[in-house]
Design a protein that fits this description.
Elements: E1 10-14, H1 31-38, H2 48-58, E2 64-68, H3 78-87, E3 92-96, H4 103-111, E4 116-122, H5 128-135, H6 140-153, E5 158-164, H7 172-182, E6 186-191, H8 204-219, E7 224-226, E8 248-251, E9 256-258, E10 268-269, H9 275-279, H10 282-288, H11 293-296, H12 301-304, H13 309-314, E11 344-347, E12 350-354, E13 357-362, E14 365-369, H14 374-378, H15 386-393, H16 395-406, E15 410-413
Parallel strand pairs: 1-2, 1-8, 2-3, 3-4, 4-5, 5-6, 6-7
Antiparallel strand pairs: 8-9, 9-10, 11-15, 12-13, 13-14
Helix pairs in contact: 2-3, 15-16
């Protein structure tokens, strides 16, 4: 079963649906319908004051924000909204196409933000031809890369976000090589989420091949990862299950809380209803319960959570279109982790109690634990060695150290 948090800790703030790209495979594939259904409820998207009220409601719970859209920097009050986020000391990532009005001034502004963790920049090919067939804007490839270099020169960390399509499937290694040449820290590959589009959507064989190439790049030590979930019953992969409705939600330009950016379901509006009421609203419970029954009994459920519930609901399907519920799945054992006996581990996370146990938070990482782990966690203060901790607590401590390392929640001194 999924351990649902008492309140979301990760938030996607969709500041605006305005965008200066025309991506045929936009990750917010249902934004046109969302605009049409939301507009009668609130004619104008939120301005700075409205977003300030939203931030007041979510700040006590938020671990990290992602500013998205559309192109979020096109919001007329973008800087004021970011200033409010900074004032609340909330870490945030900016998801952007890096095609900016007055790039120099924007980069200077972002470079002064102490809680900006980095930019997630849409790049959909290693060449202008591949990228611009996706964005629909001639010249967007060169403009995006020029602004990436400008931001990197100001010390702003950047990751690329790439949707896997039939148009760039032959360029995956080249996209990663381009990222490395520029100094981009990682490339995030995403499966396309939406109804099939001719000449864009990978067929099943193409998807399997693309995922295999991403896995090969990862095994070769390249800085790559997945940005969304791929069911393990489709093909073995290193993606993680989606936390929508579990620890994550989206807030649209009118202040409506939704399970994620892909879902058109609305639980209600944060300007008029408490966060707790919306998080536990019937529509959210139905979203959580939409996982196919067979998935709950699968060995891979803890890894992939049954795939994408939002896509299944939006396409009126019983399950994620890539999933094969009930198919046998073998999960390989985790990669071995070496722990030196003289190493002294220090933990880096926030502990939040839940009715069912504990949850550890660090960046965009989340690790649920049994409440009995509290004593072990308190021992990770950098004073004792791995050997001493093993002697005191036995194998449970080694298992915990391994889990914390995989979630990047430990550092070691010797």
């Amino acid at each position: 079963m999924l351990r649902v948090l008492s309140a979301p800790v990760f938030y996607a703030l969709e500041l605006t649906y305005a965008c200066n790209n025309r991506c045929v495979g936009c990750s917010n594939a249902f934004s046109v319908r969302e605009r049409a259904t939301s507009a009668p409820l609130s004619p104008a998207p939120l301005r700075a004051e409205g977003w300030r009220q939203v931030l007041d409601r979510i700040a006590p719970h938020a671990q990290r924000l992602k500013l998205t859209g559309g192109e979020p920097t096109l919001h007329p009050d973008f800087r004021a909204i970011v200033a409010d986020i900074e004032a609340r000391a909330l870490d945030f990532t900016l998801f952007t196409n890096a095609r900016w009005v007055d790039s120099a001034a924007l980069v200077q502004f972002l470079g002064d933000c102490t809680h900006l963790t980095g930019l997630l920049v849409s790049l959909h090919g290693a060449t202008a031809a591949a990228h611009e067939r996706f964005t629909g804007v001639p010249g967007s490839f060169a403009e995006t890369l020029a602004n990436v270099e400008l931001a990197l020169a100001h010390g702003i960390p950047i990751a690329f976000s790439t949707v896997l399509t039939a148009r760039n499937a032959g360029e995956l290694a080249s996209i990663v090589a381009l990222a490395e040449r520029l100094g981009v820290r990682t490339t995030v590959f995403n499966r396309y989420m939406g109804a099939p589009i001719a000449a864009l959507t990978l067929d099943e064989a193409g998807s399997v091949q693309a995922i295999a190439e991403v896995e090969a790049l990862r095994q070769a030590g390249k800085p790559v990862k997945y940005g969304n979930c791929i069911p393990q019953c489709f093909t073995p992969n290193n993606s993680q299950g989606c936390l929508a409705g579990v620890a994550y939600c989206a807030i649209d330009p009118w202040g409506n809380l939704r399970p994620c950016t892909l879902s058109s379901l609305r639980a209600g509006n944060l300007l008029t209803q408490p966060l707790a009421e919306l998080w536990h609203a019937p529509v959210m419970e139905r979203f959580r319960e939409s996982i196919p029954a067979d998935c709950h009994h699968c060995k891979a459920f803890a890894t992939c959570h049954g795939g994408c519930r939002a896509l299944a609901l939006e396409m009126a399907l019983p399950a994620d279109p890539l999933a094969h519920p009930g198919a046998p799945v073998e999960i390989p054992p985790p990669e071995p982790i070496h722990l030196g006996p003289d190493w002294r581990p220090t933990a880096h996370y926030e502990i939040r109690p839940e009715a069912w146990g504990l949850v550890l938070l660090q960046g965009n990482q989340l690790l649920p634990l049994h409440p009995d782990a509290r004593q072990l966690l308190h021992a990770l203060d950098g004073q004792q060695t791995v050997a001493e901790l093993h002697t005191q607590f036995g194998p449970p401590m080694l298992a915990l150290l391994g889990a914390l390392m995989r979630h990047h929640m430990l550092t070691f001194t010797q």
